[in-house]
Design a protein that fits this description.
Elements lengths: L1 H22 L1 H6 L7 H26 L3 H27 L7 H20 L6
Helix pairs in contact: 1-3, 1-5, 4-5
Length: 126
């Protein structure tokens, strides 16, 4: 099932983002050409912490046998990733990040497209 595979990929990505942004915010931001002071690094760590919640939610969704729960998760992640894609694309086109920022735009667009497909599709239980 495409949605289950997408959830698995998203679990890996969210886990990686959480670890990188919490444990090494300065080098993680430097990959995208972003630098700043302590306040920015704290916000980056907080952003990483939200990915801990995403990872746990994704893990629970992969274990779920209730199609309604899975549909709720998929629909929620669709709107979140769609909004994220718009924000990241605007930032990228505005020069806020270097060319590595396109990776973030690409992942967000991939997830938005996949979750959009899943939200429109009848999801089987299990």
């Amino acid at each position: 099932m495409i949605v289950k595979r997408l959830l698995q990929i998203n679990l890996l990505v969210s886990t990686f983002i959480a670890m990188a942004f919490i444990l090494a915010p300065k080098p993680a931001l430097a990959l995208y050409g972003i630098s700043g002071g302590e306040s920015l690094y704290v916000i980056t760590q907080y952003f990483g912490a939200t990915h801990v919640a995403f990872a746990v939610l994704l893990w629970l969704a992969l274990k779920a046998e209730d199609a309604r729960f899975l549909r709720f998760i998929v629909t929620s992640f669709f709107f979140g990733d769609l909004t994220g894609t718009i924000v990241l694309l605007a930032a990228q086109l505005g020069g806020a990040m270097n060319n590595t920022g396109w990776v973030l735009v690409g992942f967000s667009l991939l997830f938005a497209t996949g979750y959009g497909y899943g939200a429109l599709k009848k999801l089987p239980a299990g």
